[in-house]
Amino acid sequence: MNTPLMPDEIRQTVLCLLGEIAPEADLTALKPGVNFRDQLDIDSMDFLNFVIMIHKAFGVEIPEADYPKYGTLNGCVEQLSDKRVT
Amino acid sequence: MAEFVMPTLGSDMTEGTLVEWKKKVGDRVVKGEIFAEVDTEKAAIEIESFHTGVVEQLLTKPGERVPVGRVMAIIREEGTQAPPTIQAAASPLPLQRISPKAPVSSLHPAPPQIAAPDTEPGRRRISPAARKLAGELGMDPAFVQGTGPGGAITLEDIQRNAQTRRQQPSTPPAFAGETGDRQTKMRQTIAAAMARSKREIPHYYLSTTIDLGRAMTWLQEENLTRPVADRLLYGVLLIKAVALALRQVPELNALWKENTAVQSPGIHVGVAISLRQGGLIAPAIHDTDKQSLGELMSRFQDIVKRARTGTLRSSELSDPTITVTSLGEQGVETVFGVIYPPQVALIGFGKVVERPWVIGKQVVSRPVVTASLSADHRATDGHRGGVFLSAVDRLLQEPGQL
Fold it and tell me: Under an 8 A CB cutoff, do A24 and B229 touch?
């Protein structure tokens, strides 16, 4: 049976993935509404790897056109909240 | 016999510190196989063997600093006989001396003769039990003092050595945990290379603005057909276009050696990668022009990851024939790059920006990028540089052909 994902669960997982991408970053200071790329030293390769990790962790398809929606912590939570883990 | 020397991994490298051997005495090593890990001022690098054969001697211990060009190991190449066994003399044995190979670069002074371990491991007397235990403990007998007849290594020697190692506090090697020190050294090595570049290379600079409209549209459509893990970044198109343009202007794909530009038979584009701890490194993607875009993307991803985790290979640092750098993500529009000697050119790309662009008689908005060329005037003239940038532009207008 599919289970809806809880926002806290998503937040923790996303932060965990970001920690792998930018291990030097202080993620406790991350502003949830501000773009990752404005807060962390990540480039397009890092962001692509982040999207790939989201895809694998949550089992969701992410079209390239939707990348900007995953650019903030709030955006990730919003995008993934209505997904269901299987 | 072949000598395995500390390689030069760029003009800015003068020495390296052995982190660990990946083979032990008696192991077979194949050309191109990882033989050692070396810490340089920039990163830990996996060093590949240039020879195929059996490891005869390991002359350097982990933690030792070794100048470029110094012999670190001896490999008995296939097809050659093992040296005759030398009768062990009364202990202690005299030091074996090896003549080092000529220094790789004239920048580096000829290294002094070096002292090997107290005798060649392949020729040492060691009891079967001692050899077996050393193998089980992962211990190289080369570094064990033998106390048996004629300096032979006994089981007790191995046991005593193992005991000593256990009792020693686990202090990290001198090269570990020196983040601040590494930063300083990295700045110093970059400073040395860049100062040399500006001192010796008469740079000339050219730039052109390239319409990326077709390339971006093609990329968008292409990525729709690819699963997320296989999607391409536009930077890969730029790298491939540079590599193909070099086939048309091979003078730029060269190294400056002894007052002459020597064209490279292979096109190995070095990609500038900023490191998280600061500084940068520009490893080569070998045979860049022969890779499909998918292969190139995969290699690019891999090399960025390994550059940032410190697992680059020696050939990736020693082989670049030209460097590509992109500072577009930092908002830069035009790059005026400094050539990395002994290369003779560097290509820079800026930010992709929407600009008014005239097509036919209409002004339209197009995504454009400024491509710049920094080139060595000793090797080429502006005319050839211009031909090269035109070729890059032309290639990017036909992205499906890349």
Answer: no
The residues facing B281 across adjacent strands are: B273
Model confidence pLDDT, tens digit, residues B74-98: 998 877 665 544 333 333 333 333 3
Q: How far apart are CA B276 and CA A22, in angstroms?
A: 8
Name the nearest CA neighbour of B351 among B321, B331, B381: B331
Rounded to the nearest 5 percent, the helix, strand and coil shares of chain A are 60, 5, 35
Alpha-carbon B163 to chain mean position: 38
ipTM associated with this complex: 0.84
Least confident stretch, B140-144, B180-184, B219-223:
B140-144
**Residue B309 in this model has a pLDDT that exceeds 90:** no
CB count within 10 Å of CB B61 equals: 13
Q: pTM, whole model, 2 decimals?
A: 0.71
Q: Could you tell me which CATH number the domain at A3-85 has?
A: 1.10.1200.10
| Residue B218 sits at the chain A interface (C-beta within 8 Å) | no
CA-based nearest distance A12→chain B, Å: 22
Lowest-pLDDT choice from B72-86, B246-260, B314-328: B72-86
Low-confidence ranges of chain A (pLDDT < 50): 1, 86
User: Residue B238: helix, strand or coil by DSSP?
Assistant: helix
- The average pLDDT across B296-300 equals 96
- B79 or B69, higher pLDDT: B69
Query: Percent of chain B, pLDDT > 70?
Result: 77
Taking contacts as CB-CB distances below 8 angstroms, the residues of chain B near A22 are 276
pLDDT for residue B167: 54
Q: Shortest Cα distance from A43 to chain B (angstroms)?
A: 7
What are the structural domains of chain B? 2-123 (2.40.50.100), 203-401 (3.30.559.10)
Contact A55 B229 (CB under 8 A): yes
Domain ranges of chain A: 3-85
| Closest chain A residue by Cα to residue B236 | A45
Least Cα distance to B149 among B89, B103, B200 occurs for: B89
Is B223 an interface residue toward A (CB < 8 Å)?
yes
Q: In DSSP terms, which residues pair with B323 in a beta bridge?
A: B270, B346
Q: CA of B116 to nearest chain A CA: how many angstroms apart? A: 41
A24, A44, A64: residue with CB nearest B276: A24
By Cβ distance, the residue of A45, A55, A64 closest to B223 is A64
Query: Could you tell me if B21 lies within 8 Å of chain A, comparing CB atoms?
Result: no
